[in-house]
UniProtKB/TrEMBL annotation:
Keywords: Transferase
GO molecular function list: transferase activity
Name of the protein in question: GNAT family N-acetyltransferase
Positions of the BioF2-like acetyltransferase domain: 140-255
One matching Pfam family: Acetyltransf_6
Cross-referenced InterPro entries: Acyl_CoA_acyltransferase, BioF2-like_GNAT_dom
Keyword Nucleotide-binding (UniProt): no
Keyword hit for Transferase: yes
Length: 388
């Protein structure tokens, strides 16, 4: 779709323009949060005689419908809007505190589960949560982004996604450090020791924080790591006085659990009133978009009435052998390794699951690498993990 729009129109993505490039001044006089009425952006010196002189129509994609805007392109333009993808958010300003949000969003069982997972995570690993906002060393930034790429590649492989990583990731890496230092973005990281195990990239417009993308090490999934990291960011957003936490596009079960408001994204076609060619070209692009999203919504509705369970195509099997502690010895062929040196993500996950079920601190375990297996020694037993 983006490639076609680039050919037929002057295509601009709202989030890239406003959040990544910080070029709202290119199009807008002001931008406002319709929930609170507060301005998130206002041009200091509007153009005296603004005029959209482009012959090709302009297409603005990914415009949230709860964002009110005034374009600085003059009055001789026509704006046509089409609803596109669903989005979701949390109205942070509707709650007095993070604690009130938790109570109104989750029942006692859900809140207890989060607390249990957080406590177990702290018991089993050396956990530290860091939000980079206002300052970040370049060396640490590179470490975090390298870890992000590695974890996302693993997640994509597990889900059978052909692309190794998000195609926008290189642009995020290029622009985010400066945005973090200017408090126009924040990076949330959960560390196990010095190793990042959950990361989210969040971009800021006024008092609105946008959860652009996130990933976590699936070895720790038993601990609801993705949810714990998200709750940390939501609490931080309350503490910093943000009004909205926007989950943006995409329909995922976790968004339905955490969000309290849904909204549609819009695509806006903008073209000049004057000139037959301009009007015909612009209206044709608008009608094409309208037809495309009519088909999209009809297909989405049909799929929702006949849901299919997703499959994890990269599921692997492990053979686990238990050996009494007294009967275990280490041979010269076995090499002592750190948990992070274990190459198999399935063995890593099995070890983390063991820590979860036995409340066993990772530091109390010893790992040995053999030619075809990993030996794990705890205080009470020895386990041999081997991929089939």
């Amino acid at each position: 779709m983006s490639r076609i729009l680039n050919i037929l129109s002057n295509h601009i993505d709202f989030h890239e323009l406003v959040l990544l490039e910080k070029r709202a001044d290119k199009l807008y006089r002001w931008i406002r949060n319709s929930f609170t009425g507060n301005l998130t952006y206002q041009k200091k010196l509007p153009q005296e005689n603004p005029n959209y002189g482009g012959q090709r129509p302009m297409v603005l994609t990914s415009v949230p419908n709860y964002i009110d805007t005034e374009l600085d392109l003059g009055t001789d333009i026509i704006i046509k809007k089409v609803r596109t993808f669903p989005g979701s958010l949390i109205k942070l300003s509707a709650y007095k505190s993070y604690e009130e949000y938790l109570k109104k969003t989750f029942d006692q069982k859900g809140r207890s589960h989060f607390a249990k997972c957080q406590n177990l995570l702290n018991e089993c690993f050396t956990i530290r949560h860091q939000i980079y906002y206002g300052s970040m060393e370049k060396e640490q930034y590179q470490i975090v982004f390298n870890a992000f790429e590695q974890m996302q590649a693993r997640r994509f492989k597990q889900k059978g996604i052909q692309s190794a990583t998000d195609p926008m990731l290189s642009e995020y890496r290029e622009k985010t450090l400066e945005l973090v230092r200017n408090k126009q973005a924040c990076i949330s990281v959960i560390y196990n020791g010095d190793t990042p195990i959950a990361i989210s990239l969040n971009y800021i417009l006024g008092k609105i924080i946008h959860g652009f993308t996130k990933t976590f090490d699936s070895a720790y999934s038993k601990f609801s790591l993705g949810h714990i990291e998200l709750l940390n960011v939501i609490k931080w957003s309350f503490d910093e006085g943000f009004e909205v936490f926007d989950f943006m596009k995409g329909e995922y079960s976790y968004k339905n659990r955490f969000a309290d408001t849904s909204y549609p994204f819009l695509v806006e076609t903008i073209y000049h009133k004057k000139g037959s060619l301009n009007r015909i070209w612009g209206h044709s692009v608008f009608l094409g978009l309208k037809l495309f999203y009519f088909i999209y919504h009809a297909t989405r509705l049909a799929k929702s009435s006949n849901p299919k369970r997703s499959r994890n195509i990269s599921r692997n099997l492990l053979k686990v052998q238990k050996i009494p502690v007294d009967g275990s010895t280490t041979s010269v062929e076995e090499k002592r390794v750190h948990f992070n040196e274990i190459q198999s993500q399935y063995i890593q996950k099995a070890i983390c699951d063991y820590c979860y079920h036995n409340r066993e601190p990772m530091d109390s375990l010893k790992f040995y690498l053999n030619e075809d297996h990993i030996k794990m020694i705890s205080k009470k037993e020895v386990l041999i993990f081997k991929e089939l």
